[in-house]
Amino acid sequence: MATKDNILRAGESVWWGLLSPPVGLGMCWHLGPLTFVVRRYEQEWQFCHRSSLWPDDTPSSWTLSEEGDNACAEGTIERHVFSHTNEELLIEPLLADRSVVIKSAGPILIPAAEQVSFYVSTPLWVRARLQQRHHTLLDIAATRLSDTWFGPSTMEGELCYATTTSGRLHLDDLPVRVHRAITPVRINNAGEQPLKLEKLSLPVPFLSLFDTGTHGLWTEEITLHHDERKELAQVVVGAQPPPPYHQAQRVSASRKTADKSILNKTFGALFGGLIG
Predict the structure, then answer these.
(1) What distance in Å separates the CA atoms of residue 30 and residue 17, rounded to the nearest whole number?
(2) Which of 13, 32, 95, 145 has the smallest number of CB atoms closer than 10 Å to its CB?
(3) Rounded CA gap, 161 and 171, in Å?
(4) Closest CA to 263 of 229, 215, 220
């Protein structure tokens, strides 16, 4: 009988890694609100997935087992057909394919000349791709998100996903949610007036994922410098998560790359346009 240890080579501590299941075997993940099944046939990789409603503040865990008869009842089925299926399948976590608009549970006021760090989280995506060909077969969200437009007008901005956050200030207040990634956000109010923060756009397609172990998956730290005397806020993306996770292992790269000027133009304008 196949087990989690000899099919998911990354081991029991993480839900991602390489799969090389025998023909005819199906494996089932329960990852917070997401259930997805991978089945291998002689000429086909088949996926079934469904996502249930899941309150944002609910802690989550994951399990991996052989597929049961009703593991993915009423789910979406995708079939990928080949001449043969003798390649390894890589299951990996990713961040969203669009920016995520974070709306706070209530307005947050940051006095002039103050710096504050928040911990916010966004849902993960699950990607399955053939290890040798680098061919993506599956790219799905663990949590269903609504669409929203974010920008200073209906003519300027971008289509994003929307989620809410409590804007936690301390690590100890963070629930363990394996289907979400934590982004540390530092806001520097360099202006002369208090800054009212109600929502901002996180550029998650430009962020990587790091495995911190005890506190799950994190991204690099984002620093936003706000000054009402300037048209754009300055956006700085760090090289890794902040302490105590400087040494966290990178497990997936960003979906997109951009230099400093592009980040400032794209996200600094949105940040400056909706707060203050």
Answers:
(1) 15
(2) 13
(3) 25
(4) 220
Is the Cβ–Cβ distance between 57 and 166 less than 8 Å? yes
Q: Name the phi and psi angles at 269, rounded to 5.
A: -65, -40
Beta-bridge partners for 125: 94, 141
In DSSP terms, 47 is beta-bridged to: 38, 78
H or E segment to which residue 46 belongs: strand 44-51
Q: What is the mean pLDDT of residues 62-86?
A: 82
**Of the candidates 197, 178, 225, the residue with the CA atom closest to the CA atom of residue 29:** 178
Domain positions in the chain are: 4-92, 95-124+144-274
Structure tokens, 87? 């390649």
Instruction: Using the CB atoms, write b or e for 84-97: b if 16+ within 10 Å.
Output: ebeeebbbbbbbbe
> Nearest-CA neighbor of 101 among 53, 173, 150?
150
Q: How far apart are CA 96 and CA 160, in angstroms?
A: 10
pLDDT band at 181 (very low <50, low <70, confident <90, very high): very high
Alpha carbon separation from 261 to 2, 81, 105, 134, 265 (Å, rounded): 50, 43, 31, 30, 6
Instruction: Tell the residue number behind the tokens 């300055």, with chain if given.
Output: 234
Angle at 182 between CA 160 and CA 200, to 5 degrees: 40
pLDDT digits (tens, 9 = 90+) for 97-119: 999 988 877 778 889 999 988 88
